[in-house]
Design brief:
It is built from 12 helices and 11 strands. By secondary structure, the chain is an alpha/beta fold. It folds into 2 domains: about 210 residues, Aspartate Aminotransferase, domain 2, CATH 3.40.640.10; about 90 residues, Alpha-Beta Complex (Aspartate Aminotransferase, domain 1). Helix 3 runs parallel beside helix 9, helix 4 crosses helix 5 and helix 10 runs parallel beside helix 12. The structure holds pyridoxal-5'-phosphate (PLP). Pyridoxal-5'-phosphate binds next to helix 4. Pathway: Amino-acid biosynthesis; L-histidine biosynthesis; L-histidine from 5-phospho-alpha-D-ribose 1-diphosphate: step 7/9; Lipid metabolism.
């Protein structure tokens, strides 16, 4: 499969900006190359453009070579870079399933690239044939979100594999919630598919949404291109330091993950008993989607009690559906108490 031919023409011939840190990437004693202020305050120097210590640690955790990793200012930046690398505005198109993550349509509009949304079937299941039928010679990307937001479920691996095997475009699998799922990540298949990009994030299970660190794993050829078009200093010094610190405390990560998963079971059990819940969808993530009698009324009732949830009622297959993120044990209790009071009303 020729990945290069999928790139936009201007990107194929791009000469990237060469920063001071690109041209001298070793250790010196006196740095007079980047017009920085010399007085040390912890952030007076530009950050490492390739975030090497963070990638070295991620490489150990994920068992992926550092050359196959790209970091972004959140996965939102990573997704935008992918659009900009592959999609010619007004000409190319992108296929995604519906419902899915709200940033794909926004990024499509910003980049002036047509997004073709393919409805998921009942139970939020993916039909590869429909995704493939929606594609044409201008299709560059297929966006698959698994576990999916807002439904919470993993999408079927064999269906996704059919789209990868087609080798007609890049398949981006957004695994923002993969740490909560009891299944292997698509990372284990990276060597098998030159057209696979896996996106993950430190924003969810790792507890670092405020840092803005997103991860992209792909063949070296793709990572090289994304590196060439990203802003040189896209992950700041403080974020790199805090990310490395968190990645070195895997025990804390595992402890919190276990609590969240345990709490999810409790919330699911309570919702399943709840008279106002009509349907509870299986979740492989840190949130649950539930169909209730009247989503707007319950939303407003909870809001009055200062508990905010996400109303997804307007999405395909989501009529009267609310999405509940799993919080601390106390927060989840507030949610469940609120729902109980609503029912007594
Ligand atoms: C939360 C989320 C992300 C994370 O985005 P960041 O920019 O890394 O915070 C990515 N994809 C999906 C589907 C999400 O729900």
């Amino acid at each position: 499969m020729n990945i290069r031919s999928l790139l936009r023409k201007n990107i194929q011939s791009l000469t990237p900006y060469s920063s001071a840190r690109d041209e001298f990437d070793s250790v010196a004693e006196v740095y007079l190359d980047a017009n920085e202020n010399p007085f040390d305050n912890g952030v007076n120097r530009y950050p490492d453009p390739y975030q090497k210590p963070v990638k070295a640690r991620l490489s150990e955790i994920k068992n992926i070579a550092p050359e196959k990793i790209l970091l972004g200012n959140g996965s939102d930046e990573v997704l935008d870079l992918i659009y900009r690398a592959f999609c010619e505005p007004k000409v190319d198109n992108v296929i995604s399933h519906n419902p899915s993550y709200g940033m794909y349509p926004v990024l499509s509009e910003i980049n002036d690239v047509e997004l073709r949304k393919v409805n998921l079937d009942a139970g939020f299941s993916l039909d590869a044939k429909k995704m493939i039928a929606a594609s044409d010679e201008h299709t560059k990307l297929f966006f698959i979100c698994s576990p999916n937001n807002p439904s919470g479920n993993l999408l079927n691996k064999e269906e996704i594999r059919q789209i990868l095997d087609l080798k007609k475009g890049i398949v981006v699998i957004d695994e923002a919630y993969i740490d909560f799922a009891e299944t292997d990540s698509w990372l284990t298949e990276l060597d098998r598919y030159p057209n696979l990009i896996v996106c993950q994030t430190l924003s969810k299970a790792w507890g670092l949404a405020g840092l803005r660190v997103g991860m992209c794993f792909a063949a070296e050829e793709i990572v090289r291109v994304l590196n060439a078009i990203k802003p040189p200093y896209n992950v700041n010094v403080l974020s790199q330091e805090a990310a490395l610190k968190a990645l070195n405390q895997e025990d804390e990560f595992k402890k919190q993950l276990a609590i969240i998963l345990d709490e999810k079971k409790k919330v699911e059990a309570a919702l399943a008993q709840s008279p106002c819940v009509q349907e509870l969808f299986p979740s492989d993530s840190n949130f649950v989607l539930a169909r209730v009698e009247n989503a707007n009324a319950l939303y407003d009732f909870l809001l009055e009690r200062k508990v905010i949830v996400r109303n997804r009622s307007k999405e395909h297959l989501c009529a009267n559906c609310l999405r509940f993120t799993i919080g601390t044990p106390e927060e989840n209790q507030r949610l469940l108490d609120g729902i109980t009071d609503y029912e007594k009303k």
